[in-house]
């Protein structure tokens, strides 16, 4: 009997180890072929493992090399838009189902508790904000929402006690006043207490998506409440919360926040963040890639003077963007004669420009070409443009200078060559052309 007991004791760690796995079921199964698992760190992510998805399912054994922490599961390409995050306590199996319609639904206790808490709290927050921002907010409704928040927070903290999920549930606790007085006082108190429960110096929190989500939600909520001119003070507030953190973490989270601002066309805010905090962090960390990225964005921001470039006209005379005159507005059209989208849109633009005086708007068509002859055969059909071609190193240079990632790309300038619009697509461009044509100086 003693031998059997000793055998079971020796075997039990192996049994527990075998139970530690990450498994999932994807639907519809034909749409999924692989998963990649990354470990999140304060400064990014580290590849951990990958496996095939077979008949919609997969299983990864979580051995001793996969320790407690935050992980990111990529299930399709591009990675940036096909992932979700997972917490792992180092001792429990993780399982889920996933579909594009329903998203991820966890079965394991840790991730299920955290996921359900975040979804429910987010839902209550939206209802509360909607009531607070209404023309005549009902005090009784507001108190009911605040009570729902308290009840949810208390239950989640109780259920998750002594678990890994508890850290994230406590950190994401929203501001809940003891007594609601009025809307202005509520927002003032919420603003001053927004980060009270979030410890930006905690390494497990740093190694998650929550720091970025927290500062982004703070910025969005109070820019909406106070107005767009308050972006400077809000960004200062955010840096104040990060001031004691490791500078590499500061750089990482602020660079990600900067990208959020850029993606949402918050150019003034993005440039303020860069000029006052991020460029210095990039330089001190010897990160020339980030510094160059920021510099490029700033040079192409609204109101910035477009980078100059030169070309030779048909008579062999050198021309430059800055010396080109005679029009109130200019459209830079980056295109290629071998680009199918360009060959659909450029003739339509050419036709539209026939009815517009070149004293009002001129189009400078920059051909980003691989083959000069094909371009030469194409441009006679586009007679309303000033044409120039960039090939080889010149093509690469202007592409980098203007951060061209696809063709056609349009940039609208005023007479001083300052950027006033970056329309996306033909419809947006034509709307801007109509506005400029209608505007009489």
Automatic annotation (TrEMBL):
Sorted keywords for this record are: Cytochrome c-type biogenesis, Disulfide bond, Redox-active center, Signal
The source's superkingdom equals Bacteria
Question: Main localization of the protein?
Answer: other
Supply the Gene3D superfamilies for this chain: Glutaredoxin
> Where do the Thioredoxin domain residues begin and end?
300-441
Q: Which residues form a coiled coil?
A: none
**Record's signal peptide:** 1-23
Q: Where in the cell is it found?
A: Cell envelope
Q: Which GO terms describe its cellular component?
A: cell envelope
GO process annotations (BP): cytochrome complex assembly
Please state what the protein is called: TlpA family protein disulfide reductase
